[in-house]
Amino acid sequence: MGIGPALAPAVIGHPVRMAPYSPRDGSPPYEGTPSRWHFQWSDGVFDCFTDFFSCILGCIFYPSLAGFKAWALDKIDILPLKKGLLIFLGLAITALTFELTIHILALGHNWHRHVTDVWILQFFFAGVWVLFFFLNLKYRSRIRQHYMIEPTDACDDGCLVFFCLGCAVCQEYRHVARATGVLKDMPFPQQPTPHFTAAAHTTAPPAVVTYEVEGAQPTKGTQPWVSTGGAAAAAASPAGGGGFSSPFDPGMAITVTAPQTTGEKEGGKYAAPPSYT
């Protein structure tokens, strides 16, 4: 028995609301909820002056960017603060030490005696910088995932981290600080109120069913019989004098039509394929 397609039921539900951010020490949640800061950054990459503290400190003291990065990752439980400081601050200080040493050796009076040392230090400096670059890019993507900010291709974030690491780190710091309630320099973004439309109660059209009814033996010249109503009415229809049992629910309206002379004799019985509409 084949049953035709029916209408899909209407999907009715409520919007999912995220739980408010609660600090680790058990204190009450911060004002507002982090979900208000989802789906987009709180400001642009070059809006550094919205927070003078992080902007000026990041420009004057470069290793402070590692502290901002570690603090932001710890605040949203991605990386513990001590581990973050050990990774980012350690790499930043190591790279800065290599760079200063290279400049001192290259600008000294006996620089020709330290050419080999300079090349070795430059090799290590490049390795530290590449590792520092990939870690910053990786954890920027983790912050995006945490706040469900639309991801970009690797070229976009990669170029930003490579050419303007300070801008990228300060943007992450400002966003996390605002989402957790530490930085309150701008109002919470407005969330659109979801609107729901009541689902219309429509009745699905009757299913079209085709199968063989054995026992119905129409004779030539007789009119087709029609039965409309529930299963009880269909069972009482004059199909060969005995009717047939319907597999439908008693409350479903069906129409059964037997053709006048159609049907092939198979095994001594007529098999007439009625249509149900």
From TrEMBL:
Against InterPro entries, the record matches this protein to: PLAC_motif_containing
Transmembrane residue ranges: 49-72, 84-106, 118-137
Which protein is depicted? Uncharacterized protein
Show the segment(s) annotated as Disordered: 248-277
Q: Which UniProt keywords apply?
A: Membrane, Transmembrane, Transmembrane helix
